[in-house]
Amino acid sequence: MTVNTRHEIVQFSLIIPAWNEADFIAQTLESVTSVLAELERHSAHRGELIVVDNNSTDATAQIAESYGAKVVFEPVNQIARARNCGAQAACGEVLIFLDADTRCSERLLNHVLDRLQTGTVVGGGSTIAPDKPISTAAMRGMSAWNAISRTANLAAGCFIFCTREAFEAIGGFSDKVYAGEEIFLSRALKRWGRARAMRFEIMTIEPVVTSVRKLEWYSPMQLALQTLLVLIPGALFSKRLCSTWYDKRKHGRRSGPKH
């Protein structure tokens, strides 16, 4: 993996926002550092790893540092702000945002970077897969999202990428919303790219693997209610109505939002 101080050869920045992710982020970083090393070994792509400590009260930052990540701090607990903070610290001309409980393969990253190098792609996302077996109903829901993502060209929040030029031109993630910021970003990137004959693409070569921990922390009724709430006009602008992103539960206690 390229050392962050060698700015001249950093082509992309992989940014992981994290709030109280000490129980999960080590597994992600173990995977990511291996993927970046393999990518550098097998291709011309060079990148850096950035973890945004979003005001954690646990060992998230220390764990990230132990894996050689560049750690930056964002004091305001908001997912969009954390992602924007990581982008501001990035040296790469390509920005890739990955959740702290999500893993991506070398094959997918290589494909993403190759597509961006054509100059015809402004950004995109990927289909998703669960990190463990889930119920038939939950799997149908995930499959439905993948279909919507591909059809509407909307990126899942756990993995979204774009060029730095486009990201800065549209103003990054909106800090006015407390959830769904990836949808707003997807739409803005599509508009920006369309004016320049560039596409926003959802990659299907290999899905990212993401945690299904919300299925363990919340009942189906709670998750269904949250889905209905965000359909209310203006709901995404309310932190209270976006509670499942900011009231993460584990073993009966509250923690930080899922980043």
TrEMBL record:
Xref: Pfam families: Glycos_transf_2
Residues annotated as domain Glycosyltransferase 2-like: 13-131
UniProt protein name: Putative glycosyltransferase
Cell membrane listed as a keyword: yes
EC number, UniProt record: 2.4.-.-
Cell compartment(s), UniProt: Cell membrane
Keyword Membrane: yes
Organism: Granulosicoccus antarcticus IMCC3135
